[in-house]
Write a structure and sequence with these properties.
With 629 residues, the protein is mainly beta. Among the domains are: 107 residues, 2-Layer Sandwich (Phosphorylase Kinase, domain 1); 202 residues, Transferase(Phosphotransferase), domain 1. 13% of the residues lie in helices and 38% in strands. It contains 7 helices and 45 strands. A 7-stranded antiparallel β-sheet has the order 2-1-6-7-5-4-3. Strands 15-16-45-44-43 form a 5-stranded antiparallel β-sheet, with no helix packed on it.
Length: 629
């Protein structure tokens, strides 16, 4: 397909894909600009004849029709950190020649999606609540400026903001509401329930967005970023059976996470760290339907401190855990409950960055003070921990990456410095006990005895891959191209025959867990306003032998895509109710066993590592060895 931008003819196939959303593909068209190309009804992401796919095809068709009038009328004079259309792109020839098919916009390099502020593992790497509040001050200024320009964001969620340092950039501006153009898309987690059909048992937008609904979404985003849980998170467990409702129905009945019959998520920070005025605002907005501009003084006057005893961040006069009279929880080094013996082997000294069971022992990398320190006390590196860093362990070696650089350390010595491809802010490398693999210039390579050796070709900047002990798995998803592959991390050859299920919508996150002969690949995406998690089981020959899907944060083992490890033909999953065992039987992936006695020691945000001694449960700051008899 050929398009015209500023009178210049461009072949889309020659452009480098750099991203993908639910409604468009993103391509590089310069060092500081990208092209947002709208998906057409025949796009592979909409392929199929199901009612949902037909609805998506109709939505794509309707958007293209509306954009012919809407984009040329996009308002001027909007805030600088709102990524507005620069030049319109039109079809150069064929049916529809001259019609608008996309637009160019500023490319914000080195930025992360706003959702990263609400992910605990990302936040541990140097992002404090003070940084979060600074970002939301910046975001508040942009929202106020848009409203002054007569624009309503509408579908205001954690995927249409980009964070860079303490600044926030608002993207997906083509869905903004202004003049006679309405925003018709919504995200269930952030849509204002007062605008939804009260007769429905799930949020379904039925009234036009307004400025108040933007401020509702702003409050929900702020709460999620400070506490790692949104207003309707947790699991509602009323004592009376007749009061039980579907999880998605809770916003319609204003059953918030503050409700005493809602089980508060273990990974979340308790709301008692918040100042009284902010906590009161959240209660009024989410339970009593108070609307209006988010109060500026709350953000300006918030002062966050770090408790020197328990490392908790709080914005009150004293730490709510350690202050006199507070109900703190003293952890014993060894605890026994039923069939489980839990022994803390790494107390709260630093931040655990990577862990793996290799060579008959648990190996890990921690950040203590200003030092990156291995399990034997070896200081690998000194410096500042940054959110975009990536860490891997390969025996006594430590791999640390940032941007397009990966440094290989052996003990305390730097042995090698590699230039690697990056997918967004993720440097592309991984390791097992014996070797490491990395992508460079669109080629997947592995370490060999005398030099690096080629494995196979991948897609530059759009690939993700993981390396197990016996085989690896990866995929690239760019434009109309979607390919899954397996490989041997120690020899040449890449098998790209993995048949991935439909990967529609906007990709959010992914993870992969290996046993000797299976890979469990999990990913999260946003589809039609819903967050969906999926899992497939892959054999070393590329055969996909099972598939499962669930709503994100539904309380099940697949409600999150982290906190798991593979053992033989099983997947062990950490949940807030304890560890559960998952098996794949005849293509059906399902829970096969529970270990309820593990409940006091695990949560859904933990990492799990299996060793000869037992199961290691790893939080950001602690490692506990669980032995189940």
């Amino acid at each position: 397909m050929d398009i015209l931008i500023g009178g210049k003819r461009i072949r889309v196939g020659s452009l480098k894909p750099v991203g993908k959303g639910g409604e468009a593909d993103i391509f590089e068209v310069g060092s500081d600009k990208v092209l947002k190309l709208f998906k057409t009804p025949d796009h592979p992401d909409y392929a199929g004849d199901t009612p949902e796919q037909k609805h998506e095809q109709k939505g794509a068709r309707d958007r293209l029709i509306e954009h012919q009038r809407k984009l040329p009328m996009f308002p001027k004079g909007i805030p600088a950190k709102v990524i507005a259309p620069l030049e319109l792109a039109t079809l150069a020839s064929g049916p529809g020649a001259g019609s608008i098919c996309g637009y160019t916009m500023k490319f914000v390099t080195g930025a992360e999606l706003l959702i990263k502020l609400s992910q605990r593992d990302s936040r541990l790497k140097g992002i404090t609540n003070r940084t979060v509040v600074g970002a939301f001050k910046d975001l508040r200024n942009s929202v106020t400026g848009l409203h002054k320009a007569g624009i309503v964001i509408g579908d205001f969620n954690d995927l249409n903001g980009l964070v860079k340092g303490g600044e926030v950039y608002i993207i997906d501006t083509d869905s903004f509401q202004f003049g006679s153009f309405y925003c018709r898309v919504f995200t269930q987690k952030f849509v204002d329930p007062t605008l939804c059909d009260p007769k429905k048992d799930t949020p379904l937008l039925s009234k036009p967005y307004n400025q108040n609904s933007d401020w509702y979404s702003f409050a929900a985003l702020l709460m999620q970023s400070l506490l790692f849980v949104g207003p309707y998170g947790g699991v509602y467990q009323p004592k009376a059976a007749r009061q039980r409702i579907n999880h998605d129905a809770r916003p319609m009945q204003r059953i918030t996470v503050f409700n005493p019959e809602v089980r508060y998520p273990k990974p979340a920070v308790h709301w008692n760290v918040l100042p009284d005025d902010l906590l009161q605002t959240f209660h009024e907005v989410f339970e009593k339907d108070r609307r209006g501009i988010f109060p500026e003084p709350i953000l300006e006057n918030m002062e966050w401190k770090v408790c020197p005893t328990c490392s908790l961040e709080y914005a009150r006069f004293a730490c709510p855990v350690c202050a006199p009279g507070a109900v703190g929880i003293k952890k014993e080094t060894i605890t026994v409950k039923g069939t489980v013996k839990a022994t803390i082997i790494y107390p709260n000294r630093g931040i655990i960055l990577a862990a793996a069971y290799q060579g008959g022992k648990l190996r890990y990398l921690a950040y203590e003070g200003n030092e990156f320190r291995r399990e034997d006390g070896t200081v690998v590196l000194r410096g500042v921990l940054e959110p975009t860093m990536r860490f891997r362990i390969s025996g006594t070696r430590t791999l640390i990456g940032k941007g397009n650089t990966c440094i290989v350390f052996d003990g305390a010595s730097e042995k090698e410095r590699l230039t690697v491809d990056a997918n967004g802010s993720i440097p592309l490398f991984d390791a097992n006990e014996r070797t490491f693999c990395f992508a460079q210039g669109g080629q997947l390579n592995h370490e060999a005895q005398f030099a690096h050796e080629y494995i196979g070709d991948v897609f530059p900047g759009q690939t993700l891959f993981w390396t197990g002990s016996t085989f690896g798995f990866g995929f690239y998803w760019a434009g109309r191209l979607r390919v899954g592959f397996v490989f041997d991390p120690s020899k040449r050859g890449l098998n790209d025959s993995v048949k991935l299920p439909a990967m529609r919508g906007q990709f959010i996150d992914s993870s992969c867990y290996f046993s000797k002969d299976r890979a469990w690949f999990l990913w999260s995406s946003q589809e039609n306003g819903r967050r969906v998690n999926q899992c497939i089981v892959i054999r070393p020959n590329g055969l996909v032998e099972g598939h499962a899907q669930a709503e994100a944060d539904d309380g099940s083992w697949l409600g999150t895509i982290r906190g798991k490890c593979a053992v033989g033909n099983m997947l062990l999953c950490a949940t807030d109710e304890g560890i559960v065992q998952i098996k794949n039987e005849n293509g059906t992936i399902a829970e096969s066993k529970k270990f309820p006695d593990t409940e006091p020691f695990v949560s859904s945000d933990m990492s799990l590592v299996v060793g000869n001694e037992g199961l290691y449960a790893i939080t950001g700051r602690e490692i506990t060895l669980l032995k189940i008899s």
